[in-house]
Amino acid sequence: MQKKDYFEDSFKSLETLYKTTMKEIDKLRKAINDSLDKLQKKTIKELDASLTRLRASIQTDIEHCNNSIKQLIEKHDWLNRKDNNEALQFIKYWRRVKPDERGITTNDNKGCDHTGIQSR
To answer: What is the 3-state secondary structure (H, E, C) of the chain?
Structure first.
């Protein structure tokens, strides 16, 4: 009977140790989960803030690029208009210049094309 009591007491002690250990494991698991939840929330908050800053930065860059492209197009158009205008003015001037002032002689037009430049 003494052995039986000893085994029962040992078993009860073992059950108590088991329950205590399980409570400690559950407590530790809860602490780990709480820490992971805090870390997750902090990380998500920082990622959201970074994404917001990057979006704003990219939007600003896009606006700057669009403005630069618009300015380049306007300058290109202006230069084309200026070049065309200067070319038209030269053509008008050239047409007003008398043939002898262009280097064309009225007696010898055989070696000249219509621009007044002698061909070879």
So the answer is: CHHHHHHHHHHHHHHHHHHHHHHHHHHHHHHHHHHHHHHHHHHHHHHHHHHHHHHHHHHHHHHHHHHHHHHHHHHHHHHHHHHHHHHHHHHHHHHHCCCCCCCCCCCCCCCECCCCCECC
Digit-coded pLDDT (tens) for 71-113: 888 877 766 666 667 777 777 777 777 666 666 555 554 444 5
CA distance 19 to 66: 69
pTM attached to this predicted model: 0.49
